[in-house]
Amino acid sequence: MTGKQIIGKISLWFAVLVIVSPAILFFLWMLSLSLKFEIDNAAYPPVFFPEHIAWKNYADVLASNRFLTYFINSLVVTGSATVLALVVGVPAGYGIARMAAHKSAIVILIARITPGLSYLIPLFLMFQWLGLLGTLVPQVIIHLVVTVPIVIWIMIGYFETTPMELEEAALIDGAGRWQVFRHVALPIAKPGIAVAFILAVIFSWNNFVFGIVLAGRETRTLPVAVYNMISFDQLSWGPLAAAALIVTLPVLLLTVFAQRQIVAGLTAGAVKGG
Amino acid sequence: MRPPSYWPFVVPALVVVLAIIIFPWVFTIWMSLNEWKVGSPTTFVGFSNYLRLTSDPRFIEAIGHTLVYTVLSVVLPLVFGTFAAVVFHQKFAGRGFLRGIFIMPMMATPVAIALVWTMMFHPQLGVLNYLLSLVGIPAQLWVFHPATVIPSLVLVETWQWTPLVMLIVLGGLAAIPAEPYESAQIDGANLWQVFRFITLPLIMPFLFIAGMIRMIDAVKSFDIIFAITQGGPGSASETINIYLYSVAFTYYDLGYGSAIAVVFFLLIVLLAAVMLYARQRMVWTEIESGA
Predict the structure, then answer these.
(1) Do B24 and A94 touch (CB under 8 A)?
(2) Which residue of A has its CA nearest to B27?
(3) Is B103 within 8 Å of A122 when comparing Cβ atoms?
(4) Pick among B107, B134, B245 to test the A interface (most A CBs inside 10 A)
């Protein structure tokens, strides 16, 4: 290695360090806050590595009855909204791709541009008239605003790249179009469905705005529950940070382990609904 | 053989989209033409909700906040994201893993992130003022002062969304052929010249897409602002989206809220159109100067 190459290597690593440190330091600090007793969290200058670790912050959050309720709420809302979106969105993506009906994508585009609150005003009234407020149904329905466009968008892109020859051969052999979809197109599209699933789960799980309007005391999802902790619990940072970390941990793990799918999906243009 | 119809595949999604996207839009437009408050009878009032907007100082102030917030939240992630993309385009050990870490801020739950930032912004106990004190900068009030609240929120937004710009630009870099770089090396161009005259023009289309997506998201930004400041202190960080929330779900003035929603949507479309127009102008100047 020449001197010039060594300097190049060093400056590259310096640049990498500069770029990733805001993310690394932030999440380490979050972890540190969540593992400290109040005395350390209120100390100045700040304590980075506490002498005593407050595992109790996590135990407190996990032991509270309500946390389990909110966790189940989040699971039900995200789970249902994602499964429903896949059930209607995967065939739709297939149909749109095969019909080459590119104009229909404009609806997805409008959905992408519209602020989430705009859906809330009319749908809030609808749910009130239907007497659904106080159940999880309104949140499941409105989360479809996030998940359905993501799934359709990604599946259109995916089915456009899968080869048509096999499908045509199957049609000539006398298979019906549902059979072709079920037995030829769908198995090939599995990686695309995985991408759509992961992104729909993440953006539904993270959603906050729909919950603060539609959720009652018993129907809060985790992000709303954490937000409500801020106002009641302003000063105890440890448990708050622990709760925040628990809420976002599933998503962070998905990000690390399904990075390839997430990057593929996001760069396909389907970013963040609602 | 008649080709099969694919309509049946689309129908279920069509029903869902009609119910949760098209119908709310039509209904919002109808509501915006009415005096519509929760708990009192509704009356048709024509365009008076829209007229009321033109003389609503809070709304006009909110437009200003939104524009400042948006411009900063587009430009800063574009600059940092492009730099990050150029770095991640190089080969180095652990690149995949570090890229995973790098994109964590944009995937993490925004409310959870906002909560930790709120603690970091704390004027007495926050870690940010401690870090500033290490380099001799006096303590700041961050989100607790009207003059610094928007820049502080933009800091969070930039931290959160720079990775998205990086990913899009990285996709662009991957598509650039090697020849221009080889000839530049022969000509003895330095790193900055290579970036300025070869890389930048070639990734322009990707930067434009990233800028457009960033604009759409920054204009509608809600979670971070709401969770950290709720539009405060006073109304110093009240953007259109935050004001819309107050009108619709604090005052339950749904007719007026709907009018704000419609104007807000048109404003986003207008901003997108301006960006498209600017892009087209730029392309023409490039072609002319190249000829």
Answers:
(1) no
(2) A122
(3) no
(4) B107
**Tokens for B137?**
């900068």
Q: Residue A103 gets which letter from DSSP?
A: G
| Complex ipTM | 0.90
Interface of B with A in 156-185 (CB under 8 A): 159, 164, 167-168, 171
Surface of B (26-85) touching A: CB under 8 A: 27-28, 31, 83-84
Quote the pTM value: 0.92
A:B CB pairs within 8 Å: 253
pLDDT in tens, B226-280: 999 999 899 999 999 999 999 999 999 999 999 999 999 999 999 999 998 988 8
**pLDDT confidence tier of residue A112, bands split at 50, 70 and 90:** confident
For B40-64, the DSSP string reads S--EE-TTHHHHHHHT-HHHHHHHH
- Contact of B282 with chain A, judged by CB distance below 8 Å, is answered with no
DSSP string, chain B: -PPPP-HHHHHHHHHHHIIIIIHHHHHHHHHHTEE-BTTS--EE-TTHHHHHHHT-HHHHHHHHHHHHHHHHHHHHHHHHHHHHHHHHHS--TTHHHHHHHHTHHHHS-HHHHHHHHHHHH-TTT-HHHHHHHHTTPPP--GGGSTTTHHHHHHHHHHHHHHHHHHHHHHHHHHTS-SHHHHHHHHTT--HHHHIIIIIHHHHHHHHHHHHHHHHHHHHT--HHHHHHTTT-STTTT--HHHHHHHHHHTS-BHHHHHHHHHHHHHHHHHHHHHHHHHHHHHHHHHHHHH-
Closest residue in A to B132 (Cα) is: A45
Overall residue count recorded for chain A in this entry = 274
